[in-house]
Amino acid sequence: MIDAAVAVERLEKTLGKNRVLQGISFEAKPGEIFGLLGPNGAGKTTTLRIICTLLSPDAGTVKVEGFDTTTEPQEVRRRIGVVTADIGVYPRLSARENIEYFAKLCGLMDGELTRKVDAVIERLDMGSFAKQRAESLSSGQKQKVAIARAIVHDPEVLMFDEPTSNLDVLASKEVREFMVEAKGRGKCVIFSTHVMHDAERLCDRMAILHHGLIVASGPTEQVRGTERDLESAFLALVEA
Amino acid sequence: MNAAWIVFQKELMEVLRDRRTMMAIGLAALATPLVLFVISEVSTQTATQTYTVGYSGEIPTGLAILLQATGLKLKAVADPAAAAVKQVDLGVAFLPGEIDEYYDPTRQSAQIADVRLQTILGQYDAAQAAAALKNSGIDPGILTPIKLVGHPLSSPVQAASNAFLSFFLPYILITMILTGGFSAALDSSAGERERRTLEGLLLTPAPRSRLLLGKIGAITVVSLAAAVVAIGSMFVALTQISLPGSSSHITLSPAAVPVMVWLALLIAFSFSSVSLALGTLAKNFRQGQAYVTPLYFITILPASIILFIPDFNPNLAYYLIPILNAVLVLRDAIVHNSVSWMALTVTSLSLLATGALSWFAALRLFTREALLTK
What is the Cα–Cα distance from A112 to A32, expressed in whole angstroms? Predict the structure, then answer.
């Protein structure tokens, strides 16, 4: 039986002359929100991109639901959904068409396609703008489209890379609520952020990245330790 | 459903909703007949226009009627040389036993008037010589001891039609295939990066080669649609334009039709792959335009130059050069209504190889990590 939904072992990556990751290891389990924390340039996005097969590791291994990202990338991509801060949607397609396009590319067809697209539109409360062209949607609505297309194929692992950085307070709240809901349904949620307040509220466990190394990891309370809050603990770690 | 087909459908849907691409195709449909109409009007006007000849001295008997019948209007001037600079199209001084002609070769009207004058004077001289010989009891036939009898192997009207099409058709075909697909190719490559949709697309389980195939297929269809619209509108316009001196219209030789369709497919596939590969190098639409625009000049210029050399008979090596080879094969099919199978085979292989190489280049560029990290 596979215990970890995502298993990262001694991962290394160099981009250009920059050694972004220097042998990091961690595991994220089903039914938890795992935080990947760190300042800008710490290697969070690179780690997520390797997990979702967009980049290949220089050394080390990454397994998603037991599938190796290097040797079985298509199987990995079937099992993940990714939401990023860059809300890329096709402007000339409607919200529904955007979701359907990705659903089809994930292998959904005919009745299953319609059922799952309808379900995700209802779940994210997108009915009022589903037929509207994406170019006319607000940032919050576009982010919902981005979430919908990432989850329409019902992946086991959901990755959120700074998902609220371009959103207003209300839209950010909805994204956070969605992450908690996904965790409740047994999904493994990996949440990359540098907003310590969000991480402290949402994450069950976390790893703090700094200069391509994990400087602390474990349950949130353990990482916070004796500090007054996570931000103080984080500052103490990265400034040490 | 096959991922390539899914991408193909979505790309076409986006193109149909893209005002920029649809306007480019619509403009092509309007521009071609408009250009043909202007050309037709200008040539008709040139052929029927009357030019003014400023003259001095005594006009030889009967010459004035001939000149006026050929569209040369006579006007008496004091100094034909001075008048020929601006006042009239041609200056002529009739002297005893001599005609002095003054004209400015940089003026097109002077050139046409000169040709008309030379033709009329040649006929006038021949008629005068024949009359003088006849008066002296000599058979005027001695002036033409060898009689030339022409036997044209094809209709001169059809030859004129073929010459016209061999010039315009390859040019329009290639230009429209290239420019018609530009916008779609850039939107599908650089546009994906600019809109930040590329990462989402690459995160789907679909193999990247299939994603690329769907994109190239859609761009090829758009390119061909642009070419079909432009050529279709050209032929519709040609049904309204008669050939000079005839009631016939310009028609395409039967051999040229399948050759044109086959070459159009190959060129569209090659161009789609090349422009998609170049677009993939760009971070945004504007940068993509900068990369792709030179492609137009690189390919269209050599092909255009060849069109201005009607009797250029290349050896087989020329048919290895992409685009130029297509122009040559299409020109032969239009002018001679026949196809050299060897030339067509070499051309097809050359275009297929170009398309395949561009496809591999596009795939390599589409799968590199730098696509997302730079």
Answer: 28
